[in-house]
Hints:
The protein is mostly helical.
Amino acid sequence: MSETQNPGPQHSDGSRTYPGEKARQGEIILRKPWMRVVFIAGLVGCVLLALGIRIAAGL
């Protein structure tokens, strides 16, 4: 095979390829208590924002 047909782990444009096992399912690591509080507050804030927009659009 020629090199252009099988570029190997690095493509000619410089990007690397990763196997599917490494590329899937990211993990959120919240090691410190303040990180957990900020993460949960962000989720709650998104829900409250969505509710607020829905209520404001209904008026």
